[in-house]
């Protein structure tokens, strides 16, 4: 993964390419606005040169006693300055508009990117740091880079104009003005990099701050935080972390101020040096008043333009460092973890699911979460997975759903390796309810319709899915039926009970009518006993002809399965139907009796 210092090793060519990309991004997001903005910046860069020259002509006219000519120059200068003011305002507005447009485009690109990532990326802390950094920079860095580049080009045009006017006076003066600005600019560059490295280094602290804020101030956590009285403890942790960040930022800002403030005074000294020389020459009659006016103006403005260029280079360097974060995120490779394989020849007429010597280790974990799995599930078969906590049941399901690829062995669906089945095709064939299913803070229609995005607006299908999931009465009781907003996050939302949410999630799975594999990870944990029995009966009815793979810790549900598979760290330790496993008197029988005894005591 990346380190904080990495981008600073990038060569000039890489940086220029990034700058060009920023300009391209800005241009593509709103070409007309970008063109008008560039035009405004170009005019703003040329006007000061014209003003300097008019200043000289004006004074010359005064000295010559040509009042009309002097007034004409004055009016000309006034018109230019008024025009410049308007153009600068317009440039500000155009920049704001371009920034908003570009922010939209870049955020969209980031969100688009997240949709092409794998589950492993979302469980990787480095990835989260990168995502946080990329999103933080998304809305303004590319524009800042583009603006800085254009600003530099404009300042360069102005400076060249001034230098041309000044060279007629003294090459040494030009050199003095330019050299004096260099030390401050170098110091700026150094501090730009230090600030960037500090921010990158502390990205995970910043993420922790965000997480603590979420725990302290979200409905998801409010109940437990209140009852456990966790507020003061979490607040203190937030405060300490926040203070740490603040102290480091402050230290750097003060060091920057000390160094840059002093060095930038060199520029002022050189200006007054040159100004003094011009004044002396004018006093001795070696320079006309018009020239005195023009040189004084050009010295001051030229030096300011040069300083703008050097400081702009510092700012550009800083923006480019942050931009590299954004581009690095956008460049995260999304290739599968394992190289593409040759398509496995389908076994003749093979149907159903087959796990062949499957083992899986989560990224960056030493041990296997699941190993030695050899298992076949025939078409139309209902298989229940049981086993102690951590045995790998949910992992089994994530592998079957294609969210991870096996570290060892392979999984075949109708004789095809899951890795060779294009993801959209695989997803169409699966209907899944996860243990931690989503509760979308959206309408009831969307909460169910999301089960099959192609039919999200198909009310007839949604109503049938609601009935299948046992959620018809949940929606019937809502004030505006399918249009009702669910959850409490937005105004007018209706909060559902855990069991009601679970039925909605089940209905969502039933939207996928074409799916021939149904995966249910503890689908009824929050349901009451009647509802639970009803769901299982319905799943058996509606899943007729489909493969059903279900996980449940309640053995009363599991016994309806055609086959029960007992998973343990060593792999599949037992399998068979309920009565056969009870008769075998092994692990399943022991677990079943223990649970049955518990119910008997109740
Ligand atoms: N995202 C993850 N990253 C790393 N390890 C994980 C991850 N998810 C699960 N594990 C580990 O994999 C092993 C199997 O977990 P899994 O969730 O598959 O078990 P399970 O049988 O479903 O457990 P439970 O009955 O508690 O739901 C556990 O040791 C767990 O710590």
Would you mind describing this structure in some detail?
With 602 residues, the chain is an alpha/beta fold. The protein has two domains: 6-330, ABC transporter type 1, transmembrane domain (ABC transporter transmembrane region fold, Up-down Bundle), CATH 1.20.1560.10; 368-601, P-loop containing nucleotide triphosphate hydrolases (Rossmann fold). The protein has helices at 12-29, 31-63, 67-114, 119-122, 125-138, 141-167, 171-180, 182-201, 203-216, 219-227, 231-283, 289-330, 393-400, 423-429, 444-449, 459-468, 472-476, 498-510, 529-542, 555-558, 578-584, 587-601, and strands at residues 353-360, 370-377, 382-386, 408-413, 416-417, 430-433, 517-521, 547-551, 563-568, 571-576. The strands form two sheets. It has a six-stranded mixed sheet with strand order 6-7-8-3-9-10, with helices on both faces. Helix 19 links the parallel strand 7 and strand 8. Helix 6 (141-167) runs antiparallel to helix 12 (289-330). The chain binds adenosine-5'-triphosphate. Adenosine-5'-triphosphate (ATP) is lined by residues 123, 362, 365, 369, 387, 389-395.
């Amino acid at each position: 993964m990346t380190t904080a210092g990495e981008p600073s090793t990038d060569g000039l060519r890489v940086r220029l390419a990034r700058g060009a990309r920023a300009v391209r991004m800005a241009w593509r997001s709103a070409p007309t606005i970008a063109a008008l903005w560039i035009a405004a910046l170009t005019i703003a860069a040329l006007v000061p040169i014209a003003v300097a020259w008019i200043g000289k002509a004006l004074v010359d006219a005064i000295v010559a006693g040509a009042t009309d000519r002097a007034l004409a120059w004055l009016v000309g200068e006034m018109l230019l300055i008024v025009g410049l003011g308007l153009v600068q305002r317009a440039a500000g507005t155009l920049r704001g508009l371009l920034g908003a447009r570009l922010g939209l485009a870049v955020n969209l690109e980031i969100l688009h990117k997240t949709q092409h990532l794998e589950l492993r990326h979302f469980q990787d802390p480095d990835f989260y740091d990168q995502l946080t950094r990329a999103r933080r920079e998304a809305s303004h860095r590319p524009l800042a880079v583009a603006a800085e580049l254009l600003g530099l080009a404009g300042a360069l045009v102005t400076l060249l104009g001034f230098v041309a006017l000044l060279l007629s006076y003294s090459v040494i003066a030009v050199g003095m003005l330019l050299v004096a600005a260099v030390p401050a600019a170098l110091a700026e560059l150094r501090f730009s990099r230090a600030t960037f490295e500090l921010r990158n280094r502390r990205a995970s602290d910043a993420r922790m701050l965000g997480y603590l804020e979420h725990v302290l101030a979200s409905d998801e956590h409010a109940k437990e935080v209140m009852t456990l009285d966790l507020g003061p403890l979490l607040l203190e942790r937030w405060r300490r972390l926040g203070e740490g960040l603040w102290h480091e930022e402050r230290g750097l800002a003060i060091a920057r101020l000390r160094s840059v403030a002093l060095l930038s005074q060199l520029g002022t000294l050189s200006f007054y040096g040159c100004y003094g020389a011009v004044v002396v020459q004018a006093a001795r009659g070696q320079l006309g008043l018009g020239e005195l006016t023009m040189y004084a103006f050009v010295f001051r403005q030229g030096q300011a333009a040069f300083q703008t260029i050097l400081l702009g280079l510092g700012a550009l360097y800083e923006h480019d460092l942050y931009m590299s974060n954004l581009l690095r995120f956008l460049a995260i490779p999304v290739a599968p973890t394992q190289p593409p394989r040759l398509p496995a020849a389908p076994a003749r007429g093979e149907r159903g699911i087959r796990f062949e010597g499957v083992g899986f280790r989560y990224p960056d974990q030493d041990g296997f979460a699941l190993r030695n799995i050899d298992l076949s599930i025939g078409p139309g078969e209902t298989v229940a997975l049981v086993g102690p906590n951590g045995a790998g049941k949910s992992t089994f399901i994530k592998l079957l759903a294609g969210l991870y690829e096996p570290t060892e062995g392979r999984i075949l669906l109708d004789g095809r390796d899951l890795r060779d089945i294009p993801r959209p095709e695989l997803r169409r064939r699966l209907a899944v309810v996860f243990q931690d299913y989503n509760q979308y803070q959206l309408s009831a229609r969307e909460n169910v319709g999301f089960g099959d995005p192609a039919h999200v607006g198909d009310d007839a299908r949604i109503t049938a899915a609601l009935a299948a999931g046992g959620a018809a009465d949940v929606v019937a009781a809502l004030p505006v039926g399918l249009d009702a907003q669910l959850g409490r996050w937005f105004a007018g939302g209706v909060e559902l009970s855990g069991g009601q949410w679970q039925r909605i999630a089940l209905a969502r799975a039933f939207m996928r009518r074409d799916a021939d594999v149904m995966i249910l990870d503890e689908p009824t944990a929050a349901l009451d006993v009647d509802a639970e029995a009803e769901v299982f009966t319905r799943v058996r009815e509606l899943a007729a002809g489909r493969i059903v793979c279900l996980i449940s810790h309640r053995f009363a549900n599991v016994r309806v399965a055609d086959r029960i598979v007992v998973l343990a760290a060593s792999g599949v330790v037992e399998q068979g139907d309920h009565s056969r496993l009870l008769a075998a008197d092994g692990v399943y029988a022991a677990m079943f009796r223990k649970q049955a005894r518990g119910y008997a005591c109740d």
